[in-house]
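Illustration: Four and a half LIM domains protein 5.
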Amino acid sequence: MTSNHSDCHYCLQSLRGRKYALREENAYCVRCYDSLFANPCEECKQPIECDSKDLAYKGRHWHERCFKCTKCSRSLVEKPFAAKDELLLCTECYSNEYSSKCFHCQKTIMPGSRKMEFKGSSWHESCFVCQYCQQPLGTKPLITKDNENYCVPCFEKQFAHHCHSCKKVITLCKTSPGNSLGNQQKRDVH
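Result:
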């Protein structure tokens, strides 16, 4: 701003033809304004002068060049970011550090995307599929064998025993306590 005010409110030097800044209707030369009112940068600790962009977040201030992801040092200017324990992180670093990892592909499950949880593990919805037919399991009944998940029809097709005469799946059930086979043995029934 070029001066219409005659003198700096602090040092009393003439402001004619010089840049100045206003604060509470008082004019200050740039040097006085910066020394009195400039915010210190969180990163470099230098004052953020009135001719620089002052980027602020939760009462903290940064130069535009200092406003970076703590982990990868990429600029956060005009980009989404997250804060964790007072540290600023780009969304990619935040997700890699704090989001769930898919049990199947080991990649980050990005915040906002759908995930499935099964037996204490998280899965991308697209990774939570039947090992045989590759169809999404979603909330369908499933059977796990050797840490692999199968939809019931595929499990029965691949692993179940079938009756030779009627071709139906034979299920296992425990025998009754009075049976001569004993409690620990099982028999094939429909």
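Reading the tokens back as a structure: The helical segments are 30-37, 91-98, 152-159.
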